[in-house]
Specification:
The complex is a heterodimer of chains A (245) and B (167). Chain A has 245 residues and is α+β, with helices and mostly antiparallel strands. Helices cover 27% and strands 25% of the residues of chain A. Chain B contains four helices and seven strands; from the N terminus they run ααβαβαβββββ. Chain B is globular. Chains A and B meet through strand 1, helix 5, strand 7, helix 6 and helix 7 of A and strand 2, helix 4 and strand 7 of B.
Chain lengths: 245, 167
Amino acid sequence: MMHGIIFITFSSEVGGLPEYLGDVAPFIAQAMGGDSNLKLLGYQKVRYACNWKVYGDNDIFHPPLLHRALSMLNWQSAAGERASCPVRGHLALKAELTPPPNNGTLKDMSIIREVGNDETSSCAVILFPLFVITKHLSVINLRFASPVGPNQTEVNYAYFARCDDDEETVIHRTRQGSNLLGPVGLISMEDAAIFQRTQIGAGTPGNMVFQKGVASLGTQGQEPPFSNEVHILSRIRYYREVMGM
Amino acid sequence: MVETSIDIANYVELDRLQGRYVAALNRNDMTAWMKLFSAKPEASYVCTTREHVDEGLPLALMLDDNRNRIEDRVMYITKIWTGTFQNYRTRHIVQRISAEQDERGHYRVLSNFIVMFTNDQVGTASVLTVGEYVDVVERDDAGEFKFLSKTAILDTSVLPHYSVYPI
């Protein structure tokens, strides 16, 4: 168990949790709201018409390209840091996510306001193959995904408040969690839409030979770390290793 | 709550309001959808699941607990998300179960619904969700019935498709 999350394995050969998580371990506590003393607010559950690898193939430079709300709100995140565990294909990210001033786009700005005493404004941990922990603004969210078939993936988004939140903060986390980052969320509905479009595109002829910012397999190019696809390589490499490819 | 029976003319008006609601959603006409809600700041639209109601969990799939959020939802769909999602059309089949008037003069209406959806590009139809509407309806200053609150409680705890439009 680590930061309130119970890890279970059927393997007798796997090592300890610190070894399994590598450099992403410190990010889990931050994504879990600090002390991980959480209570459940509820779920959002949905099936996407895509293979599980499409759901998991999340390049971190996509937000300003895909999410129109970010440009309409003039909302940009500051530089952060990231870590990976190449031997297991895990990834972790952290960034400053200061909400922009109201420019008239939204009538209710509370959807992007941050309240509470959380230490980190934006943090995500992606554990191979499909488990995701996110903390964005006041939303603390665990995403449990599982393949239903080759062309369908079910994702259960679980949302939490901190046990020591006051009533107002619990309400805020509930209101923000409901409308911001799930399958119907202001930001994340577009991710959901793209999963299905990518699945359709994956069936077209040709091979993918270019990855942004990747000079060679496993080598980062000259671009800033948040604008390239290098982190995906460790994930793909580990998948190929597990699959014997 | 003190409940009083309502006359047939009010039943007709309530059904007409629900019919306009269904028509707006079936046409993906979000402006028409929004106009069916009260102009009061406390007007609300909530889409949640039976699982959450039974377990007392406050999170929802859509939680527009004031008029501004209802208007923001229309903006998401028509100005932010447009062009990104694969469009789909719905057919909402609604069956009123009961309608009662409370001591404030508001009407509390319960209805079943089934929502079928057809993806424009795939062309086949499937069930999007089934459930129950819990509505509170008021007569506005112009004498028209409007939703003061509308709560869609989905029996379906797992949506078979991402959702763009309200239920």
